Amino acid sequence: MQLPEEVIEDIRKRLHRVSGQIDGIERMLDQGRECRDVVTQLSAATKALEQAGFRLVAAGLTYCVAHPEEAEADGYPIEAVQRMFMKLA
Q: What's the total number of domains in the chain?
């Protein structure tokens, strides 16, 4: 499946942010920060990672609708992309 370059760049940016959040969480643990603060950051990182996944699946779904024959030939029939979406939901 071919994804637009802007989608790939957006996902990379999101993943880079998540990586920074994870590093921050590790520092918080090293510093003995409050549990509620660590959990808040864990929740934010989880949401950011989910958003990256949804962005990827949304782009895939768009591609499948616009190019159904190519998508199916690539191994991504619409049903497969719907299943990927449900894994994130």
A: 1
